[in-house]
Amino acid sequence: MVKTIHLHQHVSEPYHDPVSYRQLVGRLLYLTNTCPGITFVVQQLTQFMANPSVMHHKAMTRVLRYIKGSHEQGLLYPTTSIIQIKDFSDSDWATCPDTRKSISGYSMFLGDSLVSWKSKKQNTDSRSSSEAEYRALAIASCEIQWLTYLLTDFQVLYKQHALLYCDNNSARHIAANAVFHERTKHVEIDCHVIRERLHNKLLHLLPISSSAQIADVLTKPLEPIPFNHMLGKLGVIDIHSLS
After folding, report:
1. For residue 209, how many other CB atoms are within 10 A of its CB?
2. d(Cα 109, Cα 83) in Å, to the nearest integer?
3. Gap between the Cα atoms of 21 and 49, Å rounded
4. What's the whole-model pTM score?
5. Engineered SS bond to 119: which of 105, 157, 162, 164, CB 3.0-4.6 Å?
6. Collapsing DSSP states into helix, strand and coil, what is residue 129?
7. What domains are defined for the chain?
8. What is the CA radius of gyration of the chain?
């Protein structure tokens, strides 16, 4: 995506063929199962399927050109990774121009292998960046809980705590310190599941710098250099070079 352009409703005149727009977006949705780099932009394009504009179609054409030029990219799943769950959680506060809702994103690794990722607009408005980050942490913690249950069903021995990385200090303090809760009653109760899982020692909540936050690629448009750097961190490589 072009970093300086924010897609929203009525950004330009209506696109003349909305059916083809919906069909292409549907195909791109399937492609996000193997291409994490396009997850955020596809999430953006799906919001305008009812009334796509010329600008929305232009943005989708840019995605198609990117896919054509990066067909050699693929996810690498190393066989030597240790069984350690690592999750990177991030949010972009009030980024939607139409609803002012925030975007949540997470990328979850099993060892060095990316196994789950998501980019989604939050259901409710957040009145601060800390609240938006806290909601994103709650979503990520639910995914960690699900993966631990899945490993148990597969009879995979897993005794280490999962690692959840967040680059927002306020959100981490709210999750770890009950004193902060008196000042955060406007946060929905279901968001406090992160603190419960911390107390149950399901995971460790760790800080990370914004420059190293891998989930940035799932919550906001990036310049080409940091975008390609984050793709490498996700495990996306040139699969032709392996041969």
Report:
1. 8
2. 9
3. 7
4. 0.91
5. 105
6. helix
7. 1-71 (no CATH), 85-218 (3.30.420.10)
8. 19
